[in-house]
Amino acid sequence: xxxxxxTRGPLSLEQVVANIRRYIEEAPQATYKLVIGTDSQTDAxxxxxxxxxxxxxxxxxxxxxxxxxxxxxxVDLRHRIYRETEISLRTLEALQRAGLSAIGADFPIEIHLxxxxxxxxxxxxxxxxxxxxxxxxxxxxKPDAYGASAVADRFTK
Length: 157
Prior knowledge:
Strands 5-4-3-6-7 form a five-stranded mixed beta sheet, sandwiched between helices. A two-stranded antiparallel ribbon has the order 1-2. The protein has one domain (3-154). The two termini are 20 Å apart. The chain is globular, with a radius of gyration of 15 Å. α3 links the parallel β6 and β7. It contains four helices and seven strands, in the order ββαβββαβαβα. The protein is 34% helix and 29% strand. The protein is of the alpha/beta class. It holds the Pfam family RNaseH_like. It comes from Calditerricola satsumensis.
C-alpha cells in the first residue's frame, strides 16, 4: 500500500510509521489519537476509495496521510459502506504489521465511518459500528467522523 503525505509525497507503510514515531517524539508529553477513515465516490466508470490516517496531537494539530484506490463502479450503497469499513480496518492491521504497535505509544484508535443519522446510511449504522466495536476499536459516525467525511472525502474527487 502506497500512502501520500501532503508534505512529504508518496510513502510506504513503514515510512508512515516512522513519520508517526517522529511526530510523537517531538512532543512526547502530549496526548495523541489515531484516526482512520475511508470515504468513496462513485460515477459511471469507477468507484474511488480514499483512506485517511490521521495522527492527532489533541488540541495541538495533526499529521495525516492518505491512500487512493480506484475500482470498477460499486453502485450499491450498503456494499460501498461495508467496503469502506473493511478498508479502514485492513489499513489499521497493515499499519500494526508495519511497526505501529512497536512505537510504544498508548493512544486511542478511532475508526471513522461515513454514516450518519441523516440520509440513506442511517439504516446500516448499527451493523458497521457493531463490526468495528467487535474487533476492539472505537467507531465514530457523522458528525464526529471527520476522518472519513472531511479528510478522506476531500481526496475522492
